[in-house]
Specification:
Layout: E1 3-4, E2 8-10, E3 29-34, E4 44-48, E5 56-58, E6 79-86, E7 92-93, H1 95-100, E8 108-112, E9 128-129, H2 131-140, E10 144-147, H3 161-168, E11 172-175, E12 185-190, E13 201-203, E14 207-209
Parallel strand pairs: 6-8, 7-9, 8-10, 10-11
Antiparallel strand pairs: 1-2, 2-14, 3-4, 5-11, 5-13, 6-12, 12-14
């Protein structure tokens, strides 16, 4: 669940060997390459993982031929005022629902669709955008859209219309958020991705700050 500090709320999922990855993707694993307990002068580790495990940002090149890698995306998209909205349920987020949020140019919108997030279980069904609803967000000039599910598209999508609509419209994507217990309303988001030069995604440590949105 989201972790609260004095002013910050951590809305990122933990990443360890128990994290559920997308079926067929590379699971997280780690090993010690050196350890103080074994007499080494330092402790060092090595990690193997998909950049889509845990809370992460998708890059345009994930679905757009010739699109930018995550290290080329403006990090300012992931930092600034945002709104948290709620629509509980595993069905599609319809065009009517998205219009009801009254998206405007420069908005960052995070949607909670689940009361509780268990990062160890990959959901069989989860809330997602339709191509039309994603197009509304991108067309309105929304800077960033984030969701507490593994994908903005439905699980078995072959066309990935929502991803394509958002990314081609310049809307950044955050997936696998944990908005458990977070109040709806205005916040300030701090969630820049790791600067992987040309990769399709990167992990983020997503934080919300109250009173700054």
């Amino acid at each position: 669940m989201a972790r609260r500090g004095r002013r910050l709320v951590d809305i990122s999922q933990p990443v360890d060997a128990g994290v559920a990855c997308w079926p067929g993707d590379t699971p997280f694993s780690s090993t010690w390459t050196a350890h103080l307990g074994d007499g080494a002068p330092v402790t060092l580790s090595a990690v193997t993982t998909s950049p889509h495990n845990g809370t992460h940002a998708d890059a345009p090149c994930h679905f757009l031929e010739g699109g930018a890698g995550i290290g080329e995306v403006d990090p300012g998209k992931y930092v600034g005022p945002c709104r948290v909205v709620e629509r509980i349920g595993s069905g599609a987020l319809t065009a009517a629902e998205v219009r009801g949020w009254r998206p405007r140019r420069g908005d960052r919108i995070l949607v909670r669709t689940r009361r509780r997030v268990d990062y160890r279980v990959f959901p069989k069904r989860f809330a997602h955008l339709t191509g039309e609803s994603a197009g509304i967000l991108a067309g309105a000039g929304v800077v960033l859209f984030g969701i507490d599910t593994p994908s903005v598209d439905f699980r078995d999508s072959k066309t990935m219309e929502a991803h394509r609509a958002l990314l081609s419209g310049g809307t950044a994507i955050l997936e696998n958020l944990d908005l458990t217990g977070v109040e709806t309303g205005r916040w300030r988001l701090i969630a820049p991705p790791i600067r992987y030069s040309r990769l399709d995604a990167a992990p983020v440590r997503a934080l919300l700050e109250r009173g700054r949105g």
